[in-house]
Design brief:
heterodimer, A: alpha/beta, 2 domains, 8 strands, B: 9 helices, 0% strand, elongated
Chain lengths: 154, 260
């Protein structure tokens, strides 16, 4: 079967447009250009209550995103939730006594972890555990406390 | 009563027989793929008729699906003041579901039916048996290049469909409804994961390309060699492909995204 040159060129163009679309999806739509898992270090933190924190939630310090939550586990001895975070290796000079709290982006937004830098000379390294943590605010508990304190005042 | 059971058994047996024949046929195609790779020109001409000719249909449908998604999503999201998430919604629905599924359904209607009709007509006009007489294997010469072309074209078409759809959502969302342009892209980049969303969408489109072209070439090769038989085979290709795509989509989605 004779295949003319123009058909080969058109097929080549078709495949090239396919690659272009894949490139567009990779670079413009997905997060491949952002954080790379291999270049980070993992730290852990124990929380009394993590609310609705999910894996892949952002970790930020001073509002700047520096990593992601990579794992959530339950410690059956201390009855705490153990959250593992992967921090981008660019940010390797965080004081070891930094504190972590679970915050909410906006009123209905998703929950994320906010770190606050401490004053220690040593830095957080792979496997460090954050000691100072603050649990998520659970709306039902706050409303409950509010109603209870109101009853008490009367 | 006995007649009823007899008919039930006969139809079950005939379904199993067709499935078995289709599987053996698929194995034959796999065995003749090396002979296609030796002569890639056969593949190029089929890539043209299967892939390139579906291109305009895929681009136009993708553009309109993306635009409709943006319009509909905007009305729901604006109730919650979450218009900024429009980009995420459009991109996630296209990359995960609509891109592979709608592109595969269109592909089955455009390219699958054409493949069945072509191979069925070749059989009806005894071109396939003529090839066998000349010691040319029709599976290697006719069927395998078409199968391979469909398998390669489908992921390309689905990727183009998703990309064009996201552009269509951008035109409507940012151009018409006045959503912030930076938010459209940055929210998308923050939420769409390459390994979870894009790779899984690509795997889906490869599976759909496999099942659609397999059904299409089998129906064509298995068609009763009359005009009525070819027309029925063409109908069956589109119907069975649609069933297979939607059922496989459910299974693949449950496997890929079930635990997230």
């Amino acid at each position: 079967m004779y295949v003319s040159r123009s058909i080969e060129i058109i097929v080549g163009l078709f495949v090239a447009i396919g690659f272009l679309a894949m490139f567009f999806l990779t670079m413009q739509v997905s997060n491949l250009s952002g954080f790379n898992k291999e270049t980070g270090y993992d730290i852990k933190a124990g929380f009394e209550n993590i609310g609705s924190l999910k894996v892949m939630a952002p970790v930020s310090i001073a509002g700047v995103k520096i990593g992601r939550v990579t794992g959530i586990d339950f410690d059956s001895e201390s009855f705490e939730a153990i959250v593992t975070m992967s921090i981008d290796s660019k940010f390797n000079e965080l004081p070891s006594d930094s504190s972590a709290s679970i915050l909410t982006a906006g009123l209905l937004g998703e929950q994320y972890i906010g770190l606050e830098a401490g004053g220690e000379e040593e830095f957080l390294v792979e496997g460090s555990k954050l000691e100072l943590t603050q649990s998520a605010l659970v709306l039902e508990q706050i409303i409950g406390q509010f109603l209870f304190s109101k009853d008490g005042a009367d | 009563m006995l007649n009823y059971f007899q008919r039930l058994g006969a139809s079950t047996l005939s379904v199993l027989e067709r499935l078995g024949r289709a599987s053996i046929f698929f194995a034959n195609i796999l065995l003749s793929i090396p002979s296609v790779l030796i002569r890639p020109r056969l593949l190029f001409s089929q890539m043209y008729s299967v892939g390139v000719l579906s291109f305009s249909l895929i681009v136009i449908s993708g553009l309109f699906v993306g635009m409709v998604l943006a319009l509909q999503g905007f009305y729901t999201l604006s109730d919650f003041g979450a218009e900024g998430m429009l980009g995420v919604m459009v991109a996630a629905s296209l990359v995960r579901e609509l891109g592979p599924v709608v592109a595969a359904l269109l592909f089955a209607g455009r390219a699958g039916s054409a493949l069945t009709a072509e191979i069925g007509l070749m059989k009806a006009t005894e071109q396939l048996s003529g090839m066998e007489m000349m010691a040319v294997d029709p599976v290697a010469r006719i069927v395998a290049p078409r199968f391979l072309a469909g398998l390669i074209s489908m992921p390309i078409l689905a990727t183009i469909f998703s990309a064009v759809g996201i552009m269509g959502g951008y035109f409507i969302g940012v151009g018409l409804l006045g959503i912030d342009e930076g938010g459209y892209w940055s929210q998308m980049q923050a939420k769409i994961d390459f390994n979870i969303d894009i790779i899984n969408g690509l795997i889906k489109s490869v599976v759909f390309g496999w099942v659609v072209t397999w059904i299409a070439v089998f129906e064509g090769h298995d068609a009763i060699p009359t005009s009525d038989g070819v027309s029925r085979a063409t109908t069956r290709t589109v119907v069975h492909s649609a069933f297979a795509i939607l059922a496989l989509d459910f299974i693949l989605t449950a496997l890929m995204f079930g635990d997230i």
